[in-house]
Amino acid sequence: MHLYLVDDGTLTAGALRRELPAALAGWPVAITVLNMGLEHECIDPAPVDGRVVKEFYGSPAELAGKLAGADILVVHKAPVTGEVIEGAPGLRLIACARAHPVNVDVRAALSRGIPVVHAPGRAADSTADLTMALLLFLARNMGETCRLVSRLGAGAWQYDCRSRLEGVELAGKILGIIGFGHVGRRVAVRAQAFGMNLLVHSPHVNPAEILAAGGRPVTLEELLSASDFVSLHTRPAPEKIGLIGAPQLALMKNSACLINTARGELVDEDALYRALKEKRIRAAALDVLISEPPPPDHPFFTLPNVVLTPHLGGKTEAAPVRAAKIITEEIINFLSGKSLRHVINRV
User: Fold this and answer.
1) Residue pLDDT, tens place only, 66-95
2) Name one GO biological process term (predicted).
3) CA distance linking residue 307 with residue 296, whole number of Å
4) Which range is least confidently modeled, 56-60, 90-94, 266-270?
C-alpha cells in the first residue's frame, strides 16, 4: 500500500507530515511526501479555468504526473482535479484535511468509486473563539479605541474621548446564529457564558436540538429583525450565495452588528458596504471575503465601522493537529476495513 502526502507548505500539511509516519508505523504502508509550495495558488472562492475545484495551492498538472503509484492520497489544499485523479489509476482513498474539501473534485472521485474523507470540525473551537473575539471587539468599540489611542496618545484618556467609546454589555443582548453545525453550537456555548440570548436559524437541524442547546429556532427574517448581533456559521451552497443581501440587511436594527467567520460568498458585499456607509447597521466584522486577498481599493478599507481579519478562523496551534488526527484515524479505519466516519458520499 502506497500513501502519497502532498506537503503544500501549510501548517496543516506540516502536522500531517509529523503525525502520519508515527501513526502508521505498524501498518504495511509506504509514505511518499511530495513537496508543492505556494508559488501556484488559487485562493479565489469561485472555480476557475473550467475546474470544479477552488481555493487550492499548487499546480494540478504538476501533481497529476506524480501519482501513478498512489493507493491513498492525502492533501490539505493541494488541487485534486479530475486530471489528478486520472493520473492515479490505483487510487483507493482521498483524504483532505479540511472541513470542506472544495479543492477536491468529489464528483470525479465518486465516479471512480473512490471515497473522499475530510476533517469536519477541525477548526470549530478556533473559529468559535475568533467569533466571540470579533463580537467583543465590536461591542466595546475596540477599532475606534485603537485608532484614537494611536492618533491622540495620552489625550485618549480625556473624559470626552473615553465617553465617545461607550460600548454595550453582552448580557441580555440577542445573538442570532445562522447555521447550527460544529461552529454555531460552540459559539452558542460561549455566548451563553456572557449571558446572551440566542436565536438560531438552521432549517436542517431538529428544533429540539436547538432548544436543548439553549437557543430558540426562528425564521431568518425573525432572527435578523430581533438580533443585536448576527453571526454566520452556515455551509456554502449555491442557494446561499448572497444569503445576506440588501433585503436582509434592511431587516436588521440600526444598532445591530454582523459577523462572518464562515464564507465570504454568504454576504452581498456591495449591499453590506452601502448599509455600513449609510449607518443602516452599526458595524460588521469579517474574517472572510468573496475574493481573498481583497484588492487594495476594496471599499471596505475606507469604512471605520468594519473590522477585517485575514481569514484567521483556523489559525491556531490546535487546529492543524486536530485535522491531522482526524485524517490519520480515517486512514487507519480504511486500512483496517472499518467504516469511514467522515466520508463525502455525494456531491
Assistant:
1) 999 999 999 999 999 999 999 999 999 999
2) amino acid biosynthetic process
3) 15
4) 56-60
The pLDDT assigned to 239 comes to: 76
Helix pair 318-336, 124-139: axis angle to 10 deg: 160
Q: What are the residue boundaries of the structural domains of the chain, listed by start?
A: 2-122+316-344, 124-308
Catalytic option among 92, 182, 216, 311? 311
CB 62 within 8 A of CB 34: no
The predicted structure's pLDDT at residue 55: 84
Exactly one of 86, 169, 221, 292 is catalytic; name it. Answer: 292
Fold of 124-308: Rossmann fold (3.40.50)
E strand or H helix that includes residue 249: helix 246-251
Q: Look up residue 77 and give its three cell numbers.
A: 489544499
Q: In whole angstroms, what is the distance from residue 1 CA to residue 166 CA?
A: 62
Please report how many Cα atoms fall inside a 13 Å half-sphere around the Cα of residue 314, on the Cβ side. Answer: 22
Identical topology for domains 2-122+316-344 and 124-308: yes
Domain 2-122+316-344: which CATH class? alpha beta
Question: Is 317 assigned a catalytic role?
Answer: no
| Residue 151 annotated among the catalytic residues of the structure | no
Sheet holding 174-178, edge to edge: 215-217, 197-201, 174-178, 229-232, 257-260, 283-286, 306-308
Which among 312, 304, 264 is positioned nearest to 283, based on CA atoms?
304
Q: What predicted TM-score, i.e. pTM, was given to this entire model?
A: 0.89
Per annotation, catalytic residue among 122, 186, 201, 263: 263
Place of cell 430558540: 216
In the residue annotation, 263 being an active-site residue is answered as yes
C-alpha cell at 314: 483556523
Is residue 284 within a helix (H) or strand (E), and if so which, with residue range? strand 283-286
The distance of Cα 50 from the centroid of its chain, to the nearest Å, equals 24
Are the C-beta atoms of residues 204 and 180 closer than 8 Å to each other?
A: no
Cell of 90: 490505483
Which DSSP helix (H) or strand (E) runs through 5?
A: strand 2-7
| HEC secondary structure over 54-98 | CCEECCHHHHHCCCCCCCEEEECCCCECHHHHHCCCCCCEEEECC
pLDDT of residue 44: 52
Which residue stretches of 57-214 are H helix?
60-64, 82-86, 106-111, 124-139, 142-152, 159-164, 182-193, 207-212
